Amino acid sequence: MVFKIIKKPFIALLLVTTLLSGCSLPGLSGPAEKTVTIGTLGTAESAIMGNMVRLMIQHYTDLQTEMITNLGSSTVQHEAMMSGEVDITATRYTGTDLVGALGMEPITDPDKAMKVVKREFQEQFNQTWFDSYGFANSYAFTVKSELAEKENLETVSDLEAIAADLRLGVDSAWIRRPAVGYDSFIKKYGFEFGRVFPMSIGLVYKAVESGEMDVVLAYTTDGRLEAFDLVTLKDNKHLFPPYDASPVARDEFLEKHPELRDVLQKLAGTIDTEQMRKMNHKANVKMKEPKLVAKEFLEKHNYFE
Amino acid sequence: METLTDLGLYYSQNMGYVWEQFFRHFLMSAYGVLLAAMVAIPVGIVIARHARLSAWVISLTNIIQTVPALAMLAVLMLAMGLGANTVVFALFLYSLLPILRNTYTGIRSVDRALIESGRGMGMTKFQLLRMVELPLALSVIMAGLRTALVIAIGIATIGTFIGAGGLGDIIIRGTNATNGTAIILAGAIPTAVMAVVADVVMGWFEKLLSPVKGKKTDKMEKTA
Q1: Do residues A93 and A74 make contact, with C-beta atoms less than 8 angstroms apart?
Q2: Which of A76, B40, B52, B79 falls between 20 and 30 A from A139, CA-CA?
Q3: Which overall architecture, per CATH, does domain B2-213 show?
């Protein structure tokens, strides 16, 4: 008797679960076979590129698209690709995945790093690492444009003569990082800064703009470089590994929809660091949604013709 | 003040996008509640007839309700993966208790005399349910759906952490942007508005479906 009573709700529960895990809800997700799932990080940059990929796919193919946004880190992106929940990840950086997903030593030559990730991702994970969009989001020593003009600064080595009087503001995670941290900096460039202040990466831009720091270690595509009129110095001794950004896609999905390959290739080498910085500025400072920033860029550069 | 102008700027630039997320947010919440209604209303009816079973089932849904939303999403994510469907399932689980308990209460509070008279007229069990118990319990059940929907709209906000989109996406983006206060508000205000409007609309339905009160006031107005 009791069994009979329990059976009904149990069956209903089972029904709901299978319905949800297998099928699609109108308005929320499309049929799995014809849907590309694009994964992005929580950063504006990743959201912009993810939306660009999405808009291109919508324009050039008849596939449906779905976004999985706000993935926590590169590792999470990789896991989502491995489990097949995501078909394309929009922004992967060579330097990050070389050390993270592949567990290899950092490589400072950009071309070599790109070659290695392309080969290894194909062999180890059956994923295609596409050519870079054209921008790299790496660390760069950054100063105000006034200081750069006054002291005639172009490369990091140019700082050597005045470094003893300078205050350096850096990401607190960077200082102790092996192979690229402050110790390696001293070894490679052969000089030290007067004082070093570790802080949260989000604060360094304001700190150098307000004059509390003289030099900071910033991300090269951050929109605030644009807003605060800051200049990045060339890493002339190649301390930092390259962080060229590319889309990565699962081969299994590319085989089913070979037209995707051409669509993703269209974006290769088209956006330089300066342009990305401007787009980040629009999204983070001017408060335009990444989706609209992406659309505006594609329309302006005639991708839809 | 500056935040207000920023907020205006944000909406003027991104209105279409906000609508899109608003709609998505609402869909997730509504699906969760509807699926829960499909399960919880029949179960509620069954347990209303079997008092011993009711204690077990209600305490089970009680336990589900005590799981923190973030933990629930994290655990479900491991089993079902990322995306909107997982959020819908979490909302389904959270909606079970209010709907189940209200169905149970609604059916139990139907006057025994009415049921007896129905039975006296020769109604079958099913007829009793359809023509006496359900119409009388409907407004109470509706109140359960109302509570469930308001809770669901709130919880759907954290769906952004497993990549489901919705208004939570806008809020989280605000926390990452340089001066994000306006963006955070731009996501939080529509969420609150949605919850309030849902509450009012469902409350209106609840009144509409209430069999006793509605008709009485109607007649009183007519005679007056």
Answers
A1: yes
A2: A76
A3: Orthogonal Bundle (1.10)
